[in-house]
Structures
1.
Amino acid sequence: MYDGYDCAWLHRDAANALTKVAADLRTTRPQLRLLVLDALRPQRVQELMWNSLEGTDLRKYLASPDRGSIHSFGMAVDITLIDAQGRELDMGTPFDDLSERSHPALESELLQRGELTSEQIANRQILRDVMLANGWQGISTEWWHFDCGDRIVVRQNYTRIL
Ligand SMILES: [Zn+2]
């Protein structure tokens, strides 16, 4: 679906903010690295994904194409952490797991129900702390997704890639 894009692209502002995250991590957690899972997602790809989920209740995990995704501005990133051996940290679910277990907003509940461990939540918190300290904002439904700055400002001031 990403024909024409040979690697993960971001808007320059988001790329600079992510560079800061990497530098911060190198200082505070030198044993960890960032692993970018998705970055720029052009609007046409967003539409293909939206259409493929027609008739399912999974559309709540995608921004509708009318409204558009912050990914389509190159101002959002899906990201996780890897250790010195290149293994992904255990975040409790895989990337793009479309279940409540991915929801940061439900973590204390999920911990109580035994569906997440405190170590998994601590791993997510490392990621959130370093992202939020460097200009990114998380969302309530996906532990891996971060917007660069305010999504309303992005929609008003940045160009959507079609
Ligand atoms: Zn995302």
2.
Amino acid sequence: MSDFVSLSYIEEYDVNTILEKFKAALSSINFNKFKPKMKVLLKVCAPISCSPDLAKTTHPAVVCAVANALTEMGLSVMVAESPYGNYSLEELDKVYLNTGMLEVANSSKCTLNNNLKTCVVENPNGVASKTLTLLDAINDADLIVNIGKLKIDGNLGFLGATANLFGFIPGELKSLILNRFVRLKEFNNYIIDLNEYLKNKLVLNVVDGIVSLEANENQHMTYCLAVGENAYKVDACLMDILGIKHSDTYLKEAENRKLIQLGHTYKVIGEIKEKFQVLDFELGEFNGEKEIHKNKLKQKRYFNLYQQRVAINKNHCKGCTICSKICPTGAIMMRYDKENELYAQIDYSKCIYCFKCFTACPYRVVEIKKPINYKILEKQINKYNEKEEK
Ligand code: SF4
Ligand code: SF4
């Protein structure tokens, strides 16, 4: 995977200009992984239904330019995203329409993914999570091209290429994951887990920073289109342009896992980085150690509505201590009841929902409780999975 990051200066969302700059970028970084007839999934940033004018989503002109460049080379191209909220084709169609992706499909030779089937994959090298639930569409693709949006999120911090893969998590499961990780450091590790899992297919990263979004949600003309093979390096370059310390972001976790060395480890091609220096960009708070959830009440409400969790019936527990010994976070404590009998008790603030205690209990005393909203979400996902299997 090359260290090159190509930067192009682009003043407006004009498809032909972006197309030419994108092709020049591919040639400047010596990119040669596209072969005719390959199936490519374009992972755009369209997590919510809103107009491209708000700069919260990848601009359709960028998606159209990339799709046109790839179809010209004889590849088959499909745009994919899984927005937050209700997991249904109706919602997905609404997002495609309002974010301009439908228009992209109508004006180019690419198609829109409408396969809502999901897959659960083992990720043994994951740090935050050993399994991942993902859109099944990734399995049909030969390659993934990631087209992120340059923006700052008040909760999650910098969002460029690396974090854009979070959209492969189906629908509202994304919110569940955000609620599962209390600290940003844990969520950042989850993002790195995703990138590492997908790295064999993820061959190219493009970030739309022509108009970027600041922490206060104001827009900023950054005029920048970044292209590179290594998502961490593309992001590192963009962070330097915006004046963000790498070590305050998910790149710190990538470094801890020896996937990247912090500092200027990328090589810029095309326009010089200084051309894009933006001195008055509103950055907001950056600190990988901060808690994602400032609103504890909201978090608790979400937890009660959605989080499937383990529960131990104190009266049936035999006090064998197996669950307590197997729990990776020490979330299960052994207590004595009034009759001096030992029983297991869960501290949910330490639980990471790995369900190891559920599997380990020899007396089937550990149960999995599914709140009503989780059941609805699960039903929606299962409906699409079963439909595809028929
Ligand atoms: S689900 Fe995992 S972390 Fe939670 S109590 Fe059980 S073993 Fe511990
Ligand atoms: S493994 Fe089951 S029976 Fe043993 S302490 Fe845990 S919950 Fe109780």
